[in-house]
Amino acid sequence: MSSQAWINLAYLTASMLFIVAFKLMSGPRTAVRGNYLGAAGMAIAILAACFEQPVAASVAKNGIWPLALLAAFAAAGGGIGATMARRWPMTGMPQMVALLNGFGGAASMLVAAAELTSTHTIARFGEGAAQTTAQTSLGSWTQFGIAIGLACLIGSVTLTGSLVAFAKLQELPRFKKPWDDPNRQWFNLGLGIVVVLLLWAMFSNPQPLLFLLLVLVAAALGATLTLPIGGADMPVVICLLNSYSGLAAAAAGFVIDNSVLVIAGSLVGASGLILTAIMCKAMNRSLVGVLFGGLGTTATVDADEVYAGKIKAAETEELAMVLEQADRVVIVPGYGLAVAQAQHAVRELADVLEARGTTVEYAIHPVAGRMPGHMNVLLAEADIEYEKLREMDDINPTFPETDVAIVIGANDVVNPAARTDPNSPIAGMPILDVDKAQTVIVVKRSLSPGFAGIPNPLFAADNTLMYFADGKKALIDLTAAIARD
Amino acid sequence: MPKTLLLDSATLLATTPSGEDPASTFIRLLTVFLLAMWVGFEVITKVPQRLHTPLTSGSNAISGVTVVGALVVAGSLTSGFGSLFGLLAVFLAMINVAGGFVVTHRMLEMFNPKKK
Fold first, then answer.
1. Which of A84, A111, A239, A394 is the most exposed place for a label (fewest CB within 10 A)?
2. Domain ranges in chain A?
């Protein structure tokens, strides 16, 4: 067997390991093994790459130092990545994933850039290749041109899109408010047209100058597409960028004719697309609507009308009494929980309740938080059992038998207007039916609206008690009050 | 398959050292791409929502596979912009790979607390 065949066999092994890794993600226990297998696949692929003919030829000619240089850069990147991953707070997971997506996209773009500028390519094409392809202009799309154009486009969009998403999630002051210039769609359309033209040219005649232009315009587009998107739509953006980072890797695989890049890239691309679809469905919105529409912010209902005279604010002692009498309590976390870093306080409250014989469960809306599954990770960090974290469809039928539902830092995902008011901007969005519980306790700083910018009739409902306080402090006070009795 | 793709096969032939017909190379890769995409859809729809964050970070790590491409490109070069791009790609992709796998492991550990 030739050495190239061995290398290809190694790539095949790596690809299979990646598929098994995804397969094992279906349960929390098997997922640990899956992650190891994924890492093992990556190690095999990386080792195999070091034996590829161009690398081997270079080592034969120049000695070991090019390989040593590569190892140094790889070790530096790996070290930084691992350190980051160990230290990053769990509440900031969406930011970290956004940043890593960006690096992956940039790397794929750079692979295409390196391949294009390398002497290696000139050798392959022959010095006159550029002229030849120019003569046949549009009639000569090439595999190389298509792949390099797409890798450049997707990689650059992923890079800047991810950096903007990171800045927004990190709540850097300049990125707090979504970009809402009314002409932004025209601006994006203009950039889009330029991108298509450049891409068209790249397809038939990939050249460094064109590549550079495409990088710049695509990078601008990545930023301007992400800037207008608001916080609660971030789960969709994260999933989409995740998908892009995979597709960029696949495109890079087309550039250098490498199957493991294509397979792993398309697996990730598929994963991101599925998650994107799930997130959109959970908000009852189309992808186009999320990316370009913004929410219809015309308030159809006046907040004063909804809330006037109907809000019942409760004190700690009163709420403690309500909770002490409950047999079954469901806790509904939202992004506010992450902001208040209240996951451990939630756990302590649940502990005192469970010590009294109360059943405590958690209802997780698919888009609660800033990335898919965000709330589950936070609650898991506070050692809350996996089995107690219930998905929306699973827990919704149980709300009528629930004595107390505690809503912490969630708003739109528990707004009954989605069910009842066909004119509401969130009409038809699947929600957690907390209003059907015997008593609802809403922990919130004020009556300010959620992301959708609409009042929430839940707060004014007869069975709702408002607890105006910071989420973490509220939970600690409640826990103390119950523990005292 | 667009006819235009076949026309310029003389230029394209140079991109495949093995001598495979370039349009065939493209279609071979496209086949792999679409089949892998299909497998991805089948496997990933079975992941429960509760594990979607580790799924995202884990798939993120796997998208760092572009490091393989970076190594091949950078390894064959010894100078010029190309090698600089390649080295930078290796560096960034490795942050992605290591960061993704380690953070996924950290999260999954939390989902499986050690029994005391």
1. A394
2. 88-293, 303-484
B23 and B53 together in one domain? no
Phi, psi of A192 (to 5 degrees): -60, -45
Percent of chain A surpassing pLDDT 90 = 55
Residue span of the structural domain in which B109 resides:
49-116
**Residues B61 and B38 reside in one and the same domain:** no
The pLDDT mean for chain A works out to 87
- Among B11, B74, B106, the residue with its CB nearest the CB of A142 is B11
d(CA A291, CA A308): 35
Structural domains of chain B, count = 2
CA B22 to chain A, closest CA, distance in angstroms equals: 7
Of A11, A81, A84, the CB nearest to B97: A81
Decide: residue A45, CB within 10 A, 0-12 exposed, 13-18 middle, 19+ buried.
buried
Measured CA to CA, the distance from residue A482 to residue A90 in angstroms comes to 28
Q: Is A423 on the interface with B (CB under 8 A)?
A: no
**B66 and B21 in a common domain:** no
**A58: contact with B, CB 8 A cutoff:** yes
Residues B3, B37 share a domain: yes
User: Residue A133: its pLDDT value, please?
Assistant: 35
Tell whether domain A303-484 is in CATH 3.40.710.10: no
Say yes or no: B63 and B109 in one domain: yes
Kindly provide the ipTM of the predicted complex, given to two decimals. Answer: 0.87
Annotated catalytic residue within A181, A393, A412, A433: A412
The pTM (predicted TM-score) of the whole model is: 0.87
**Spacing of C-alpha A479 from chain mean position:** 33
Q: What is the pLDDT of residues B35-67, one digit of tens each?
A: 999 999 999 999 998 899 999 999 999 999 999
Q: Are residues B116 and B59 in the same domain?
A: yes
Chain A residues with CB under 8 Å of B33 CB are 250, 254, 262-263, 265-266
**For residue B25, what pLDDT is reported?**
83
- Domain check: are B32 and B71 in the same one? no
Kindly report the nearest CA distance between residue A186 and chain B, in angstroms: 31
Count Cβ–Cβ pairs < 8 Å, chain A vs chain B.
456
In angstroms, the separation between the Cα of residue B7 and the nearest Cα of chain A is 6
Q: Where are the beta strands (DSSP E) in A209-262?
A: none
Cβ contacts of residue A347 below 8 Å, gap of 6+?
A379, A382, A383, A384
Decide if A74 and B71 are in contact by the 8 Å CB cutoff. Answer: yes
Would you call A267 and B83 a contact, using CB atoms and an 8 Å cutoff?
no
- 8 Å CB contact between A331 and A408: yes
**Alpha-carbon torsion A134, A137, A139, A141, what sign?**
positive
Q: Whole-angstrom Cα distance, residue A350 to residue A364?
A: 16
* Average pLDDT of span A125-150: 57
> Is A265 near chain B, with CB under 8 Å?
yes
B115 in the same domain as B73: yes
Interatomic CA distance for residues A233 and A284, integer angstroms: 12
- Cα–Cα distance for residue pair A461/A439, rounded to 1 Å: 10
Catalytic residue check, A304: no
